[in-house]
Each structure stands twice: as structure tokens, then as C-alpha cells.
TrEMBL record:
SUPFAM superfamilies reported for this sequence: MCP/YpsA-like
Enzyme class: hydrolase
Identification of the protein by name: Cytokinin riboside 5'-monophosphate phosphoribohydrolase
Catalytic activity field: AMP + H2O = D-ribose 5-phosphate + adenine
Catalytic activity, EC: 3.2.2.n1
GO MF annotations in UniProt: AMP nucleosidase activity
Family: Belongs to the LOG family.
Length: 200
């Protein structure tokens, strides 16, 4: 496994109903930056997505935003991309997701909606098919992703998760434990080994 230099964060373009969602996003962005890692994200400036970006920028980090042209007016406020050192405007969601995958060494899903679920599940599907061994984390703040963990366990128990040893995302509740977990997985090369994946 190659060392981790960039982290893709999937999350909501809405703020959610509690302030801790934005706080977690900003904290994670800052921690990614302080670790010397590049943030790869969906290019929005609103909601949790915007908080992650601001956190990284304010901590002096490098940030790449990738956003489809048709979402510019929905997910990004005018003039709010000034702090990004790279903004890629693409034509389709497919292109956005592929570029985010190619440019990222690890993936984190903060709380979000259907789009967030779709993005991280696709990454897990590619892992199941053997297309990558990059670390995958659900930021399980206040148990947000517990239903997802239960569903994954249920599908595996019923025999519908093939090559399950390749699909071992970490569920980490404390935001400050995410970057150390990613770096630890990279250092040991144990991503995908169910004996060492931690569910914190």
C-alpha cells in the first residue's frame, strides 16, 4: 500500500439539524491539513461540505474541490472558492466521482444524505471487487452511521457481501481519531484485513 497523502471526504451539502455536524466537519478538515494531507472533496461551500473545506483552509491545508457545473449554483456560494488552491469544474457526477477516487488515497464519510451514502457505497463496492485497498472510514459521530453498520452486518450475515474481507470500513466515533486511524492503516498495510480493522 502506498502512503496516504490525500483524503477524500464525502458529506452533506446541508448543515443538518444540530451544530455538531458543522463542528465535526470543520474539525476534520483542520486535522487533515495539520497532518500534511490534501483534502479532496465535492467542491461545495455550504453545509458540512463547506465546513470541511473551511477547516482545512484555515489550518493552512491544500484543498481540491471537484464539482459538476450544474451544482455550482446549488452547492456553492458565489466567491466562496477563493481559499481553494484547486477547483475542478466537470460536466457530470460520474466524472466527479471518478476524479475524486483517482486523486484520493483514503475515504471518509461524514454525516450526509443520499448522495453521501451513494458515494461511499460505490467506493465499498469497488473494494469488494478488488479494485482498491484504500482505507474507508465512517465518521460515526453520535452514532449517525449505526444503521449503516447494522445493515452491512445484516447483508454479510445473509451471504450477500461477497469477498467480505475486502469490505471492512472502520466506524470511528471521535473525529480526532480519524486521521490517526488512516495513517495507522497505511503504515501497517493492513487495510482490508478483518483481523486488524477497528470499529471505534
Amino acid at each position: 500500500m502506498t502512503s496516504i497523502t490525500s483524503v477524500c471526504v464525502y458529506c452533506g451539502s446541508s448543515p443538518g439539524r444540530a451544530p455538531h455536524y458543522l463542528e465535526a466537519g470543520q474539525a476534520l478538515g483542520a486535522q487533515i491539513a495539520r497532518a500534511g494531507l490534501r483534502l479532496i472533496y465535492g467542491g461545495g461551500t455550504r453545509g458540512v461540505m463547506g465546513a470541511v473545506s473551511r477547516g482545512a483552509i484555515e489550518a493552512g491545508g491544500k484543498v481540491t474541490g471537484i464539482i459538476p457545473r450544474f451544482l455550482l449554483s446549488k452547492e456553492a456560494a458565489d466567491g466562496q472558492h477563493a481559499g481553494l488552491d484547486e477547483l475542478l469544474v466537470v460536466d457530470t457526477m460520474h466524472t466527479r466521482k471518478h476524479m475524486m477516487f483517482e486523486r484520493s488515497d483514503a475515504f471518509v464519510a461524514l454525516p450526509g444524505g443520499i448522495g453521501t451514502v451513494e458515494e461511499i457505497i460505490e467506493i465499498m463496492t469497488w473494494a469488494q471487487l478488488g479494485h482498491h485497498r484504500k482505507p474507508m472510514i465512517f465518521a460515526n459521530q453520535k452514532g449517525f452511521w449505526n444503521p449503516m453498520r447494522d445493515l452491512l452486518d445484516h447483508m454479510a450475515a445473509e451471504g450477500f457481501v461477497h469477498t467480505a474481507h475486502n469490505v471492512q470500513p472502520m466506524f470511528i466515533e471521535a473525529v480526532d481519531g480519524i486521521v490517526p486511524a488512516l495513517l495507522g492503516a497505511s503504515a501497517t498495510g493492513n487495510v482490508g484485513d478483518e483481523r486488524v480493522i477497528r470499529r471505534m
